[in-house]
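User: quick one
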Amino acid sequence: MTDTVAIDASADTRKWGKVLYVSTVVFLCAWVLVPIYFLLINTLSSPETVTSFPKPFWPEFDLASLTFFAGFDGMLSALKNSIIVAAMTMVMSIVIGAPAGYALSRFEFRGKGTFRLLILLTRAFPLPLLALPLAVLFIRTGLDDTAFGLALVHTTLAIPFSVLITFSLFSGIPIELEEAAWTLGCNRLTAFQKVVLPLILPGITASAIFAFVISWNEVFAAAVLTIENRTLTAFLLQNLNTSPLHLKFAGGFILVVPALIFIFAVRKYLFAMWGIANR
Amino acid sequence: MAEIQIKNVAKSFGAYQALNDINLTIADQEFMVLLGASGCGKSTLLRIIAGLETATSGEVWIGGRRIDHLSPKDRGIAMVFQNYAVFPHLTVFENIGFGLRMQKLPNDEVTRRVERVAGLMHIEMLLKRYSGELSGGQRQRVAVARALAMEPDVILMDEPLSNLDALLRMEMRAELKGVLAESKTTAIYVTHDQVEAMSMADRISVMHEGNIVQAASPIEVYRNPAAEFVASFIGNPPMNFLPANPQGGGKWSVAGQTWDGPATEKPLLQFAIRPEDMMQTEEGLTAIAKVVEPLGAHILVTCDVAGSQFRVILDSEMSVRPGQKLTLSPQPGRARWFDPETTLAVA
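Assistant: Done. Structure below.
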């Protein structure tokens, strides 16, 4: 008899553990998904529905708000600026970050641990503190209000991630593969091209897309450092303040969706950054 | 001709001395095994020859050409790695042909050579596969084939069989030996497995703490260990040791028995004997059997002789029980003597 009681008790604990687990998962998903869902509903609804209550469960597929944005003056050039800056950020953060990741994973050098920590610490430095000196410096050097100048700032923001992601990618490739290539007639460069690069290309792409998203989402530096050549975030921030509610939703939607799609596409490699995916 | 000469090679990692002044000559087409426990410097030495590691000092010559300043690709070597290092993004065919493609050989020549070595290693049917679809043994075959396809002067192997299971290892051992003998390349083979070393080598270099303790044929290393370390490392179980006190005139007293030994003035020697080289006699060492392990053809008896552990291998016809008293004598000519000061063998 006592045996069955014990089994029941442990089964009970397990059941409650499972309930707790599932409800936590549901709660966290709701935390993220519900706002996005409202964003979607309101974007695709007519202005009247947006301000009304209760909301309809299904969107009306009223594209007025979005069409309005498409035709909005300056919108397209802001979009173009965003893409240019994000693309430059993407290229620069890989060109600078990947060699750093390679060095961290392949070479032993003094201060390696400190260096890794410092890379992360750059993220702890608040951008607003830097904004004023940066703005002054940019104006003096003529970098202000240029896509390149903003891309430089965004690259700084993206590099910690590109270094850590590529570090993890390179560490996932046994050094013996490179050594084998060296003994088979490669030098360091050709071994990299013929062996390492093909193996990490998907990961590098992911890391590049992540840098793209960081730049795409960044609003503070963009708002401070550009005036004429605003990126989409800075442009919307400036204009949505004074816009009606349904346009705010549409603007938010335009910003969120590309970022979400990109992040979803590269999710596997974001885990790699913390060293999970390769184990 | 690809004779390898290693001259005064030393390697230190910071304060740690991995190799001390290594001198070794490996003849053309010789199969040399570097044998030692992990951390003895055997892999470091191999990697220095390969050019994957730079020696702190010393020279490496292959075929009369000094090569220690050259990069790995210019040394005329090919290497087989412990974890195979088969490129996962290429087919088996392209893996084997990788080095040939780097030499920009024409397509038909690449195909011819890849197919030839694939045939040698019995992997013709795997040429279109990727390494993810291969078993450990198959990957190892690909790695060896890739090295052979280069038709190198020297083939270097770093514990190539240690990741395989026991049965496969035995099979590959024989096969590898045959293939290498046929290819007429000089081979250096690193292992910590003395059975592998014994069965494959033309010559074994036993390494210990960054030194080559003995470089000789397998039988020589087994029968005439040059130092106590070799005697206690080679053989399963290894040699037994007992202290020997001089009685004058080349006579030595070992655990109460007086036997003929080297005529030297040393105040103390170590008497050493292989477990299978003791036999039961009327008179001899008094040994108390502690543990008896039947091995099939033989029994391994762990005894106590004058307070030290002493192992003997006897015919399994003998019935020995724990606690039984045995009297043992060495077979003629099989006892070895070491100087405890230098740990070297004394003739």
